[in-house]
Amino acid sequence: MKSTKTGLLAFSSLLCGGLVVSVLAMASNDNLDTQILAEGLDHPWSMAFISDSEMLVTEASGTLRRVSNGVLDPQPVAGVPEVLFRSQGGLSEVRIDPNFLDNQRIYLSFPAPDDEQPELNRLHVISARLEGNTLVDQQTIFQSHPPRKTAAHYGARLGFLADGTLLITSGDGFNYREKAQALDNHFGKILRFNTDGSVPQDNPFVNTPGALPEIWSYGHRNPQGLVITNDGKVYQHEHGPKGGDELNLIQPGNNYGWPAITYGIDYSGAMISPFTEQPGMEQPLKYWVPSIAPAGMTLYSGEMFPQWQGSLFIAALVPGDVRRIEIDDNLVVTEEILLSEFGRIRNIIAAPDGSLILATDGKEGKLIRVTAKQ
Amino acid sequence: MIRQIQAFLISLLIATFLLVTHTTATNLVWLSSIGMPVDLAVSVSALVTDLAGMNSRGEFPAFGLIFVGLLIAFITARIISIWTSLKKPYLYALAGGAAMLAIVILMPLAFYHLDIIAGARTLAGKVYLTCAGVVAGYYFGSHPQPGDSNEKH
Predict the structure, then answer these.
(1) Is B60 on the interface with A (CB under 8 A)?
(2) pLDDT score, position A22
(3) Across all residues in chain B, what is the average pLDDT?
(4) How confident is the model at residue A44 (pLDDT cuts 50, 70, 90)?
(5) Residue B114 contacts A, CB cutoff 8 Å
(6) From A151, A174, A181, residue closest to B34, measured CB to CB
């Protein structure tokens, strides 16, 4: 692969009280081939490979699609529950069970109207068995509490820790941002469950009076990126308001500060907080001002781009590109901008063959395969 | 006419100032309640930053939004005044209140049902901002309007 194209925009950033030099590189795509796998998808949101040649894709409008050998199946997967498709809400994450080959279970996240107060809604996470092209044996793992009026900031990413427990990101609901600092609710939290919906007894707040025992970390805004590495590190990114998007290294029990500390301001131009740091609240590994609107993240470990192994790839909605992030010793040392010609990128995953798969945002969303140029 | 424009601009400043200070105070009170070190210097700095920020770096300038709201409301009140005997200060106070209430209710419709003005998220906040419009309108209505005869004042 050719070396990264010049255009180095070096900048320094002060992080965690120390001087960290990171490099923002505008990379060319001369060494990359791109191919449209599928188009006409209605707000594609998440993708997951169920075999070397088959992938599931969620459309926020409420359908689960299958792509087999690079061809989109016109018939959606049956049995997907009714979802609330409004504003930022819709069918969100699809994640396969670590033992999928044995149990064929998948996990979905989505908002749905509250049973008792249908004008309100909750984030749901379910598991189901994929039998042919139908979801069966559905089990509810999680419903957020309390219900919300807004249809925004759900988070809704899922990830499995090495012990088989499930992490769920739950956003602050926009209008409820202060609740991200309280432990009696699900707004602005990362939660940890067993796959049957029970709470692991080694969660950090199980013995804290008044705290919901499933809370794993708190003080988040709208966490839409979640990566768990083989050595157990949990990286998360979250949308900031106007500026202040963050990449965080998550530790159980920690407070990530929102909205008490932030590098962003409100959409009205008002300060959300005059503070950017405070003892007891974690600093991000990196923050972005202005916002890039990070919407999905994957860790690359494939063979097709050996020079990128260990990098995080972040899908950015604004201005619309992919950020390759290198982290060394818990410091971001490189940020490279790639694939800025496709507009808003909703998500990115790595395929089993080492290629990267992008989903573009919107009513006419596309799946784009990125491979090394031969 | 000049005095009228002057009165309108001052009423605009009153409403804008009350909205910004309410937003700042709402944030600072909550921050203080969770133990953040909010002192006088932080409060003054936050207020000054918000007075500038909410009129320059947001998705919309606060004074621009209120300008449009009050202008429509006061023109409407002027027309209504032809048929009503309600005293001008009260009529314009109602108009100012209606303008601010409309802003805090209609704004979310333009932003995915989200309350962009943080201070307007609660019922108390909406009531306060409506009262800010009432104060601004009362000030405007307390000044002579075109067509008012000298005998009335």
Answers:
(1) yes
(2) 61
(3) 92
(4) very high
(5) yes
(6) A181
Residues of B in contact with A149 (CB under 8 A): 113
Assess whether pLDDT exceeds 90 at residue A1.
no
Lowest mean pLDDT among A24-33, A133-142, A184-193, B37-46: A24-33
Q: CATH code at A17?
A: 2.120.10.30
Q: How confident is the model at residue A77 (pLDDT cuts 50, 70, 90)?
A: very high
Residue A2 maps to a domain: no
Q: What is the 3-state secondary structure (H, E, C) of chain A?
A: CCCCCCCEEEEEEEECCEEEEEEEEECCCCCEEEEEEEEEECCEEEEEECCCCEEEEEECCCEEEEEECCEECCCCEECCCCCCCECCECCCCEEECCCHHHHCEEEEEEEEECCCCCCCEEEEEEEEEEECCEEEEEEEEEECCCCECCCCCCEEEEEECCCCCEEEEECCCCCCHHHHHCCCCCCCEEEEECCCCCCCCCCCCCCCCCCCCCEEEECCCEEEEEEECCCCCEEEEEECCECCEEEEEECCCCECCCCCCCCCECCCCCECCCCCCCCCCCCCCEEECCCCCEEEEEECCCCCCHHHCCCEEEEECCCCEEEEEEEECCEEEEEEEECCCCCCEEEEEECCCCCEEEEECCCCEEEEEEEECC
Q: Is the reported ipTM for this assembly greater than 0.95?
A: no
When the pLDDT of each residue in chain A is averaged and rounded to a whole number, the result is 93
* Contact yes or no for B58 and A242 at CB 8 A: yes
pTM given for the model: 0.92
- pLDDT at position B151: 43
Contacts of B50 in chain A (CB under 8 A): 269-271
Point out the residues of A that are catalytic.
153
Interface list for B 14-33 with A (CB within 8 A):
20, 23-24, 27, 30-31
As for how many domains chain A has, the answer is 1
Asked if B47 is an interface residue toward chain A (Cβ–Cβ < 8 A), one would say: no
More confident residue, A30 or B139: B139
Residue A295's domain comprises 8-372
